[in-house]
Amino acid sequence: MLRSPNLIRCVLFDVVGTLIYPQPSVAAVYQAAGVANGCDLPIETIRARFREALILYSVSPDLRTDETLERERWRQIVAHVFAEANETKAILDRLWKHFAQASSWSVYQDALPTLEKLSDRYQVGLASNFDGRLRAIAGHWPCLSDAMLFVSAEVGWAKPSPHYFGSIANVLQLQPHQILLVGDDPRNDYHGAVAAGYQALFLAREKDVPADIAPEAVIQSLGEVITRLL
């Protein structure tokens, strides 16, 4: 249950994992990039190393970020995944270009109808830990391109930094409690937003829900956002 749904003026959505997902999968794309550059790894190895790398090479400890730092972070992630390769620059370049293309992503079936419905009554925005490539990706779908876009590398802070959420509230000229954030990441989206004073919903999509997220804050599909608000 939302604290004060009648006070909400803006609904923000996380992007990757909430509105869109990579298709083919990240592991499949990484494997193909490795093969093309002489480093053929089992897909299970790629999945495991990628998960490790996301933890090892998260954003800086103070959660500051920018375009240069994001590119460097992904360089480290790729180097970790392809540890056997003598040189990973060509692999990074291939992956960077691939994930910059809208054709490399698919949109969840419930995403566009939800954004379209909400845009009649609320400001709608996208709040993502990403870089400038997201603008071209979001521009591929009308409802996403019409939404305000808050990209961490442009804001200068990454979720769950309170500076990230505070910057958005300042741009919107709203109080934090007037903003609802919907996302699939417990730390970056749900807890980060709540700590900043936002209202928040955790999108589970049938995944396990952490014990520290109240059941009434959990939704299984984006369509439930509409039923909570309208």
UniProtKB/TrEMBL annotation:
A Pfam family it matches: Hydrolase
Gene3D superfamilies listed in its UniProt record: HAD superfamily/HAD-like (3.40.50.1000), Haloacid dehalogenase-like hydrolase (1.10.150.720)
Signal peptide from the UniProt entry: none
InterPro entries, alphabetized: HAD-like_sf, HAD-SF_hydro_IA, HAD-SF_hydro_IA_REG-2-like_cap, HAD_sf
Highest taxon, organism lineage: Bacteria
Protein name in the entry: Uncharacterized protein
Source organism per UniProt: Blastopirellula marina DSM 3645
